[in-house]
Amino acid sequence: MEQLTTSIDVLFILLGAILVLFMHAGFAFLEVGTVQHKNQVNALVKIMSDLGISTVAYFFVGYGVAYGVFLGFNMDGALTQAMTERSGYELVKFFFLMTFAAAIPAIVSGGIAERAKFYPQLAATFFIVALVYPFFEGIAWNGNFGIQEFLEKNYGAGFHDFAGSIVVHGVGGWIALIAVLLLGARQGRYNKEGKIKMAHPPSSIPFLALGAWILSVGWFGFNVMSAQAIEGIQGLVAMNSLMAMVGGILAATFIGDKDPGFVHNGPLAGLVAICAGSDVVSPLGALAIGLIAGALFVKAFTWTQQNLKIDDVLGVWALHGLCGLWGAIAVGIFGTAALGGLGGVAIESQIIGSLIGISVAVIGATVVYGIIKKVSGLRLTEEQEYNGADLSIHRIHANPPREDY
Question: Which one, out of 60, 189, 221, 237, has a CA that is 20 to 30 A from the CA of 19?
């Protein structure tokens, strides 16, 4: 029976890893549909190449930083034998968590789209996935540095982030903010008075919608399979994910005045926010979390673009950074027994844990992108940006003219 349980756990996590891996197609098409036509190929290639770099970085360094097991430096076969005896549980756990880690550069990619150099961005991906992201992942999910123990002792509960509202999305969104600020706005985006000069509408609403749907479906693997064992699975997680997703859709639909960009990012805002508390809040609480997240995304995206002059192409700071922060804090509100939750959470721990995660992201991104900017530069030349990343970097358009065939 023990062997059967382990084998089922392996299959359970493997299916989750495949679902989250498929989410990267969602990231790709969400970006493809949002950027200008001359940058669509670059969006597709970036997401694919980032996945390859992320896997190597997490295999050799990142997983060990977070969990103390350096898979890539197993030279004597002992670790391989141990994993084989456990039916590969450690291996599929790595696969599952690697797909989470690879989501970080996929998130960043949407913010810095249309003007970032290719290889410098890949270099940033390596260091972020190898060092920055797993540093906080280990704090939140492996108890590194005793911070969780400290929070439990002083506030009665540790930092609770079941599926990564802060660990994945918050960290990714705040890293993206730093990268966007260091890159600067796209050429012609704002006039001398600071007003938006070029709107850059989405190049393909169908591709944008496809990306949103792929992400939304894959998210149920992201959340439900975060139990990492079949006995830990909860129908509550699936139900809460659905309710938060719907809350995000409704808020974005009405507050965003039916704008397709807002409507299709609405479910993602709700799902980002529910990751942290999907296992402890009630379905009604999840709906409220999603409604607030959807409204937050619409208002924050508009405000940052128009008032702060932050040229975040896909609005990833608003979507992942701010909605992730809201979701983590919401655990300390809607996760309490008084509001229908299961309890065992503390608002103080949620705030402190969130601030630690944001600090790691901001400091780490500033160091990584700051050094790369000084060494090789981060953005394309004005001419390259004008011609588009597809032609300047990849020497091909998404749909070449017929005479090119």
Answer: 60
Give the residue carrying structure tokens 């937050």. Answer: 296
In this prediction the pTM is 0.95
pLDDT of residue 9 exceeding 90: no
Please name the residue ranges forming H helices in 307-346.
Answer: 316, 323-334
Nearest partner of 22 among 103, 129, 133, judged by Cα: 103
- CA count, 13 A, side-chain hemisphere, 343: 3
| CA-closest candidate to residue 103, choices 13, 215, 190, 208 | 215
pLDDT at 10 exceeding the cut of 70 = yes
Q: How far apart are the first and last CA of the chain?
A: 59
Q: How confident is the model at residue 230 (pLDDT cuts 50, 70, 90)?
A: confident
State the Cα–Cα distance between residues 162 and 154, nearest whole angstrom.
21
In sequence order, the β-bridge partners of residue 190 are 196
Structure tokens at 287: 């709906």
Angle of CA points 293, 297, 303, to nearest 5°? 140
Q: What are the percentages of helix, strand and coil residues in the chain, rounded to 5?
A: 75, 0, 25
In this structure, are residues 173 and 321 in contact, taking their beta carbons and an 8 Å threshold? yes
Give the pLDDT confidence score for residue 316 in this predicted structure.
97
C-alpha span between 37 and 200 (Å, rounded): 10
Residue 96 vs residues 9, 101, 320, 327, 335: alpha-carbon distances, Å: 12, 9, 20, 22, 26
Query: Is the distance from CB of 156 to CB of 346 less than 8 angstroms?
Result: yes
CA distance 239 to 270: 13
DSSP E strands, 89-215: none
What are the tens digits of pLDDT across the range 365-379? 999 999 999 999 999
177, amino acid identity: L
> DSSP state, 189?
S
Q: Between 2-34 and 89-111, two packed helices, what is the crossing angle to 10 degrees?
A: 10
DSSP code, position 258: T
Q: What distance in Å separates the CA atoms of residue 135 and residue 368, rounded to the nearest whole number?
A: 14
**pLDDT, mean over the chain:** 93
As a whole number of angstroms, the distance between CA 40 and CA 83 comes to 41
d(CA 392, CA 291): 41
Q: What is the pLDDT of residues 307-333, one digit of tens each?
A: 999 999 999 999 999 999 999 999 999
